[in-house]
Amino acid sequence: MPADVPAAAEPKRSEHQDIYAVIDLGSNSFHMLMVKVVGGSVQVIGRVKRKVRLAAGLNENLVLSRRAMKRGWECLALFAERLQDIPPQNVRIVGTATLRLARNVKTFLHDAEHILGHPIRVISGEEEARIIYLGVAHTSNCEQNRLVIDIGGASTEIIIGQGFEPLKLSSLHMGCVTFLDGYFADGLLTEDNFNAAIAAAEQTLAPILPDYQALGWQVAVGASGTVQAMQEILIAQGMDETITLERLEAIMQQAVVCGRQDQLSLVGLAQERKQVFPSGLAILIALFRALGIQGMTLSGGALREGVLYSMLPQLQETDVRHRTMASLMVRYHIDQQHANRVADMAQSLAQQLSPRWALSAFDGLSLLQGAALLHELGLLIEYKNHHHHGGYIISHSDLPGFTRAQQQLLMALVHNHRADINRELIAKQTMTSVLLTVRLTRILRLAVVLSMRRRHEALPNVTLSGKGEQLVLQLPAGWLDQHPLMRAELEQEVQYQQAAGWELALQ
């Protein structure tokens, strides 16, 4: 082992039986993810990422250079310090494409395992694709056939699956590091360089296309740094989170205008992503063109999450959103009986307005139910501004099963479920139309007010109807006179909605 790289310290007896660590030795970066199991879900307590660019050290004879191995060993020495207090059975370490290809991989693994004090498992391309799909399935909600794309440093995994079952798996020898060295080695961002990289990727894809097109899919998600970088760029440039071929080609033209790799400057592109972004972008464009992908969003997980959940059989709940909701309700001590009462009332009101209000669009009814279940999330902090606290918690939490745009819609609904209405939050939604967000907000607010007695037998039988955006809430004859506090709350709600420009009448 190199003299300047320390070995792992002698492991200490650990009491942290609920802490887990996964290390992914990727071709571009090494990642370490550390989590703690809390309230039936995972809570991230640490992430460490280092750009190692291991694939750049692989020559034409598939021999990994000593310099690249040394970069890897130095990174693992940092990781080793964090592993000392984690039970060995709670640690998993996997190697991917470059370590699969390297003829001298045993040399690297011998010293790497000594440094870490744990075995390293080099997984096959098909196994990597399978684990990536499981990571996506455990962090994203989808009942239809789903296409999953993960562009790594030296390989690209393409999977079609349904639920938690991968149906078609492929791992192709193309990645953002290998394509950077192969097609952008001169540092120039020209159309010729991009076109050469795109054509090479399309050629690599050609043999698998018939099987994938025959199987088909309804939803496409990306699980790579390239896809995350693209989504960050789109949002920073004032668009929604959906990646399309037209938008990819527009971003490519922005890169070409920059001219050189060292002068690449795109609004929304993080500094750490600049080096391999052009090559990753070229591969992504080829994937969209060859597979005919209409739109893609970012997944909440991939390889590391797939490895992690394989260690956690107690978290194998197949309904990802249900698991997320249940965990938040436990962790923040939400009154589950009342939350369900409000959710039921919200669904009842929504059904009375459907299909005229088209609330099922963009998964609206499911998100309305989620917001109802979480509307008292901030009560653990304090009452007066608990709707603001709840919105903040949602906005800054990991919510497996929800895309970032869906998470922001949940935040806006919870923030606006009572008191003054923040129209600016509603206008900022990127997942759906402002009109649908307004409609969901109005229904949630009425459900909260109507359930305020926190007793099922106290719920009034109401009819909610309307013409256009004008709503009429009809209650049983004499009910308002018999419930003066509820009448005052409902009249106050009429004023709140009128102040926001929404018409609501009581009968």
Automatic annotation (TrEMBL):
Domain Ppx/GppA phosphatase N-terminal: 35-314
One Pfam family linked to the record: Ppx-GppA_III
Known EC number: 3.6.1.40
UniProt keyword Hydrolase, yes or no: yes
Pathway given in the UniProt record: Purine metabolism; ppGpp biosynthesis; ppGpp from GTP: step 2/2
Leading EC class: hydrolase
Gene3D superfamilies hit by this protein: 3.30.420.40, Exopolyphosphatase. Domain 2, Hypothetical protein af1432
InterPro entries per record: ATPase_NBD (IPR043129), GppA/Ppx_hydrolase (IPR050273), Guo-5TP_3DP_PyrP (IPR023709), Ppx_GppA_C (IPR048950), Ppx_GppA_N (IPR003695), PyroPPase_GppA_Ppx (IPR030673)
Catalytic activity: guanosine 3'-diphosphate 5'-triphosphate + H2O = guanosine 3',5'-bis(diphosphate) + phosphate + H(+)
GO molecular function, one term: guanosine-5'-triphosphate,3'-diphosphate diphosphatase activity
Keyword Hydrolase: yes
Domain (Ppx/GppA phosphatase C-terminal) ranges: 320-493
Keyword annotations from UniProtKB, A to Z: Hydrolase
Record function comment: Catalyzes the conversion of pppGpp to ppGpp. Guanosine pentaphosphate (pppGpp) is a cytoplasmic signaling molecule which together with ppGpp controls the 'stringent response', an adaptive process that allows bacteria to respond to amino acid starvation, resulting in the coordinated regulation of numerous cellular activities.
Record-linked HAMAP family: GppA
Family recorded in the similarity comment: Belongs to the GppA/Ppx family. GppA subfamily.
Protein name stated in the entry: Guanosine-5'-triphosphate,3'-diphosphate pyrophosphatase
Organism: Alkalimonas delamerensis
Lineage: Bacteria, Pseudomonadati, Pseudomonadota, Gammaproteobacteria, Alkalimonas
